[in-house]
C-alpha cells in the first residue's frame, strides 16, 4: 500500500485535475472517425493501490475505447502462454522510436517486428493468442481483459465498425508481416481481432484496476485472481517504459520514470510497481497520439507521490 502518502492522494488528484482541466491543447484522433465524435472536454483520473484502495476525480465512469492500451494485456496473455524467451524470438522487444503505425518497425531489424506495443508487433502478438478457432481466440482475449478489470468488459460496436472501415494501413502491415513469417495466424482474421481488442470499452476506474493488477504482481486487488506469473510482470513494464508512448516514450520515461501505455482513445495507464496504478483519460492527443491532459496529470501525480521508479528507493518515506 502507498501508506503514509495515501492520505495525500486525494488532494494530489484534485490538484492535477484543476491544473489541467482547462488545457485545450491537442486534438481528438480522427483517422478513426468515431473517435473524433467523443467530447474532448472529458477528463478523469483514478489511482488504485495494490491494496484495492481507490481515489478518483472527474469523468471516471465514462466508457472509452482502450485502443493501444489493449496491447499490454494481449502481451500479458501471450507471455503467460509462451514465456518471455518466445516473445523475444517471435516478436522482439526493441524500442523503435517510430510512430505507432510505422511500417519501419517491420523493416528496421531483419526478422523482427519492433516490439509488441507498435501496431505491427501488436498484431503479431494478437496472432499468437491460442484457441481452437477464431471465436475461442477472441473470447479468451475478452475474458482475460475482463479478469484484469475484475468486471466484464465489452466491445464498443460503433468504434469497432468505424475502425474496421478505415484500417487499410494495419491490413497492409499484417500482410507485410506475413511475408516475413511474422504473422502466426491468417492476417485478415488477426487484423479483425486486433481491431476488436482496441475497441474494448473501459472507464478510468476499470483501467486503473487493470494497472493495479500489474502493480500487484499479477493479482487483481479486488477479485484476488492471479492472472499471470509475477516474473513476467517486469518484462511487460520494461516494454512500457521503453515503448509505451510510441515515439514520445523516451521523453516520457525521462520525465516520469514510470512504465505507462497510451491509446488513441485518450487513455493512459501508468504502473507504480508494488504500489498501484494511475489511469487518466482525456481525448485530445499530442502529435504522437498520446492524451495531453492524461500525460500532464500523471506526470504531476507521479512527481507528488515520488513514484519515479528510479528515484523511489532513495527516498525514506
Ligand atoms: N486501433 C488503433 C490503431 O491500430 C490503436 C492505435 C493507438 O492507440 N495508438 O491504429
From TrEMBL:
Q: Name the Gene3D superfamilies for this protein.
A: DD-peptidase/beta-lactamase superfamily (3.40.710.10)
Q: What is its EC number?
A: 3.5.1.2
Tell me which SUPFAM superfamilies the record gives: beta-lactamase/transpeptidase-like
Q: What are the UniProt keywords, alphabetically? A: Acetylation, Hydrolase
Q: Which InterPro entries match?
A: Beta-lactam/transpept-like, Glutaminase
Catalysed reaction, written as an equation:
L-glutamine + H2O = L-glutamate + NH4(+)
Which residue ranges traverse the bilayer? Answer: none
Query: Any keyword Acetylation?
Result: yes
Q: Which residues form the signal peptide?
A: none
Q: Which GO terms describe its molecular function?
A: glutaminase activity
In which residues is substrate bound?
A: 68, 119, 163, 170, 194, 246, 264
Which EC class does it fall in? hydrolase
Assembly description: Homotetramer.
Task: Give the family, as the similarity comment puts it.
Answer: Belongs to the glutaminase family.
Family matches, as HAMAP family: Glutaminase (MF_00313)
Q: Which NCBIfam families match?
A: Gln_ase (TIGR03814), PRK12356.1 (NF009020)
UniProt-recorded name of the protein: Glutaminase
Gene from which this protein is expressed = glsA
Amino acid at each position: 500500500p502507498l501508506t503514509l502518502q495515501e492520505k495525500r492522494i486525494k488532494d494530489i488528484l484534485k490538484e492535477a485535475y484543476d491544473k489541467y482541466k482547462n488545457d485545450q491543447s491537442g486534438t481528438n484522433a480522427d483517422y478513426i472517425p468515431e473517435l473524433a465524435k467523443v467530447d474532448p472536454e472529458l477528463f478523469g483520473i483514478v489511482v488504485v493501490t495494490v491494496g484495492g484502495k481507490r481515489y478518483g476525480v472527474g469523468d471516471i465512469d465514462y466508457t472509452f475505447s482502450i485502443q493501444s492500451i489493449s496491447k499490454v494485456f494481449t502481451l500479458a496473455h501471450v507471455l503467460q502462454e509462451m514465456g518471455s524467451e518466445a516473445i523475444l524470438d517471435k516478436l522482439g522487444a526493441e524500442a523503435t522510436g517510430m510512430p505507432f503505425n510505422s511500417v519501419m518497425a517491420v523493416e528496421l531489424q531483419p526478422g523482427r517486428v519492433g516490439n509488441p506495443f507498435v501496431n505491427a508487433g501488436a498484431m503479431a502478438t494478437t496472432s499468437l493468442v491460442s484457441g481452437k478457432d477464431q471465436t475461442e481466440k477472441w473470447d479468451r482475449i475478452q475474458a482475460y481483459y475482463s479478469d484484469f478489470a475484475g468486471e466484464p468488459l465489452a466491445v464498443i460496436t460503433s468504434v469497432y465498425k468505424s475502425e474496421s472501415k478505415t484500417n487499410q494501413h494495419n491490413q497492409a502491415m499484417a500482410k507485410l508481416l506475413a511475408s516475413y513469417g511474422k504473422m502466426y495466424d491468417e492476417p485478415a482474421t488477426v487484423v479483425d481481432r486486433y481491431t476488436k481488442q482496441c475497441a474494448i470499452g473501459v472507464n478510468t476506474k476499470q483501467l486503473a484496476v487493470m494497472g493495479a493488477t500489474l502493480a500487484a504482481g499479477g493479482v487483481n486487488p479486488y477479485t484476488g485472481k492471479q492472472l499471470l506469473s509475477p516474473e513476467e510482470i517486469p518484462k511487460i513494464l520494461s516494454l512500457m517504459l521503453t515503448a509505451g508512448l510510441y515515439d514520445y516514450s523516451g521523453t516520457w520515461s525521462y520525465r516520469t520514470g514510470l512504465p505507462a501505455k497510451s491509446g488513441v482513445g485518450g487513455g493512459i495507464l501508468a504502473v507504480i510497481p508494488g504500489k498501484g496504478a494511475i489511469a487518466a483519460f482525456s481525448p485530445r492527443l499530442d502529435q504522437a497520439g498520446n492524451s495531453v491532459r492524461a500525460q500532464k496529470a500523471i506526470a504531476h501525480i507521479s512527481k507528488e507521490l515520488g513514484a519515479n521508479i528510479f528515484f523511489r528507493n532513495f527516498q525514506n518515506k
